[in-house]
Design a protein that fits this description.
Helix content is about 75%, strand content about 0%. The protein is an all-alpha fold. It has one domain: Four Helix Bundle (Hemerythrin (Met), subunit A) (Up-down Bundle). α1 packs parallel to α4 and α3 packs antiparallel against α4. The longest helix has about 35 residues. The N and C termini lie far apart (about 50 Å).
Amino acid sequence: MHNKFWLMATSLLILVSSLSAQQPPALDPLNELLFPPELVMARQNAIGLSDAQKTYLRAEILKAQTRFTELQWQLQDAMEGLAGLLKPSKADEAQVAAQLDKVLATEREIKRAQISLLVRIKNDLREEQQHRLQALRGESK
């Protein structure tokens, strides 16, 4: 029973660490629907970003970066706590599960903050700017 749990916990740690890695664009169904800040800023002249849009996007990106940094610290703390609980030869399953819930909750918050930023960026772009970005993204493939 404990061997199964250890194998499961190890697998979950691998899964958790892989969740934070970026997936290839072809596997990401949201890739074509949302625009990363780097793309928008790199193509700002080509899509005719107004000064007001640039100011808004800079402010939103700075606010998101601050939040991401805070969440990364929380995630690191939670992961260290989980690792500490798994160090002994016998791990308390209930404590590990509770700590894993903290890790997963923080990762969920990170993903939610990422999507929220991308939605705010999309919503600030006019429809023709979105179409132009999609076309420019297609040209660079």
